[in-house]
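ZP: hey, is the flavin-adenine dinucleotide complex queued? I don't see it on the tracker
AM: it wasn't, my bad. submitting now with these inputs:
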Amino acid sequence: MTADIVIAGGGASGIAAAIAAAEAAPGAEIVIAEKLDRVGKKLLVTGNGRCNLGNADLSQEHYHGSFSEMSGLISSTPPEDYFRSLGVLCTSDRQGRLYPRSESAATVLNSLRIRLSELGVREACGAGLTGYTGRSGSWELSMDDGQAMTCRRLILAAGGYAAPQYGTDGAVMRMLRDKGYRISRICPAVAPLRVAPESVKGLKGVRAKGYVQAVSDGSILAGEQGEIQFTENALSGICVFNMARQLQDHEGRLEIVLDLAPDIDFGTLLDYVRDIRTSRSGLELNELLTGAFSKNLAVYLVRTALGRPMTDRIADVSDRELKVLCKRIKELRFKVTGESPWKNAQVTAGGVHRSCVDSRLESLKERGVYLCGELLDMDGDCGGFNLQWAWASGTFAGKNCGASLKGEKS
Ligand SMILES: Cc1cc2nc3c(=O)[nH]c(=O)nc-3n(C[C@H](O)[C@H](O)[C@H](O)COP(=O)(O)OP(=O)(O)OC[C@H]3O[C@@H](n4cnc5c(N)ncnc54)[C@H](O)[C@@H]3O)c2cc1C
């Protein structure tokens, strides 16, 4: 098979790149080579099937990695306008998160595929890129189905390591590392964080609201108000997801610190538990925090703070013990023992470093090869920021790639 442009990867950024390339180079033969049996499989599960496709907040602070200075690209392709041009009506929630009005990710994928079809872009599914050689104007691609492809330009949009069940196993990133590309340290982002099972014993299934901080060697790296969820060996929830990328630089030292009563100061909290000691003196310890937290969390806090049998009477608790308990409520610490498996991660932190491409996302090492999406060293917070980067970087790489064909003989 020969084509003018092959896009390796039919996810969010690859589809956006194909559309932009076809619009910039009308008449060019453009093929999306997708490893799985159809394009956009991951897209269908984003936002729990509702596809949080962007965020009204376009500021750089939500982006991390060596490409974060290029987050300005997003302003030139605001997702609401982009999808409006494809006929998709969007709606946003109070946090600025954008969704299709239909609340269905299938609406988004269908609209993108309609545009691909209008532009004559071909989808070659079940065709995973395993290697390529050549030079600008003539690339020879080997595919995992044994076929070979040749093309004049190549756009790499094969994603990272996160969620390999949707086709992304990091193979293209490893291929680029072998070719000498600089790859920034990889770790799961927008992902749960693993903790020792004994540290969360009794908390499985509990959800707790509070102020959550990521701390390393006493320094606060990030803080956010939100809800934390406990599993038998991990912490989860949007605020934890946003802190997972800190493992990239703080492995072995990272702690998650939770203030379960951020709106109540220490003194007021102490007064409260002292009052309970007076008013419920005859009850057992497991009832001490019944009025303040859900049952399992209340018992966990008292058990881990006081280390007494839960059958002891509330009246027996000393003032010093009540202070320890209040400290525990205001500063519940969990040592992070490691990353969650890639299958539980939504995004990859790290990837191809900014120094490997020019300002048009064309490889400096291999002219005629363009890169976009999660393959690059750029990850965003939870809330639509990652898809926003995928559309923007894909559109930009595709447009520049398509434009580069102009004036060149086919
Ligand atoms: C469960 C889940 C929910 C998410 N929800 C949201 C959300 O609501 N909002 C948000 O902003 N982000 C969300 N994300 C993150 C977002 O989906 C990704 O950041 C985004 O899809 C990245 O786009 P991409 O095109 O770079 O890569 P991908 O979308 O991962 O696409 C890469 C494509 O390349 C293909 N591929 C891989 N290797 C090869 C190869 N060798 N040859 C050919 N093809 C290959 C893959 O099969 C895949 O189709 C979610 C992720 C997950 C896993």
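AM: back. The mean pLDDT is 96.
ZP: great, adding it to the tracker
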